[in-house]
Amino acid sequence: MVSKKPRIVIIGAGMAGLTAANKLYTSANSKQAFELSVVEGGSRIGGRISSSEFCGDRIETGATWIHGIEGSPVYKIAQETNSLHSDQPWECMDGIPEHPVTVAEGGHELNPSFVEPISKLFKNLMDFIQGNAIDSDGFATEILKHCARSCGPGNLSVGVGNWSRKSLQEAVFAMHESTQRTFTSADDLCTLDYNAEREYIMFPGEEITIARGYSSVIESLASVLPVGMIQLGRRVEKIEWQADGLDGIHMENGYCNNSRPVKLHFCDGSTMSADHVIVTVSLGVLKRGTSQDSGMFNPPLPSFKTGAISRLGYGVVNKVFLQLSQETTDFPFLQMVFHPQDSELRHPKIPHWIRRTSFLCPIYSNSRIVLSWFTGQEALELESLTEEEIVSGFSATVPNLLPSKPTHKSCNGTTEQPRKANK
User: What pTM was computed for the model?
Assistant: First the structure.
């Protein structure tokens, strides 16, 4: 009997799947030791990593940041492939925006001396939850200081426009909550597991975006794989595993037909056999695949795995890129403070789906392309809107916040739907 090499099939050609394929294929004697295939249900590689262009600038319609460069394998690949430099402008090429201008609904710019104590309080709250070191004054001391400021005359003793001092403080705090929702992809921060927050650790060092696009990392991982190893448009419908019962299978021409223990069933009716399968699909696909009426896994996964999959949460995050009109210059890093949706004081033309986003800013200094992030229900609603409805919503909102600026009507716009899993 001629022995067959074991066949390994990787399901998914995102970051995890391509990293696994890269490591296996480049390992010593891999070509002699096993066969390797990657099957991907979509029409491209990369999963939620997808770099694109908008009005001549490079943007990310999926994963955007390297959160800490010291020890990061993503940064190492980007560095080795000369992807950290580009003549073409790219999203957040100046790093994380600084020096925000905070404006409350109605066009009231807030003094940093009013905003910063609330920002510091929110940061200390999150640091406490995440188990990080807090400012030297101490967390409890900071709360007392903030309460004293809230009750005293301070820099804003009465309010501005139709805002009271208290409502402004609450709205600035809510603005930071919206930013945190974007970080976590949570529709409601109360749904987060704050014990697990303490387990999340970022790499140290600077946070950056990749000049030649996050997709350059994906392309580097895939570049070592031979043509044909990655098969696109092959969506797996069922994974069937039969570890026993292979004895006595019919032999033909020295080979054992159907002797591999795993069979993949694809949506087009075709199948593929394998000895080992590495599943790198998203949490959403796993949730659907382990539901009672799915049958994606046969036999079903053990309960400790399905239980873990069911308990993990994930959310929706969307990005909107808008091109401002030519007469618009020096658009600020705008932090937006809104009345609650149920407030009688809210401006009726500002759509509710904008009220829980926290900022609008150029993608780099002096760029006419501005960016805003949406999370949760607002992100889902955004997907149902037309481009014209999105542009109209921003065109009503920005002049309300920045009345001294020219009307910021967008001459072009695009929305993308990146998603990330909850921590």
Answer: 0.86
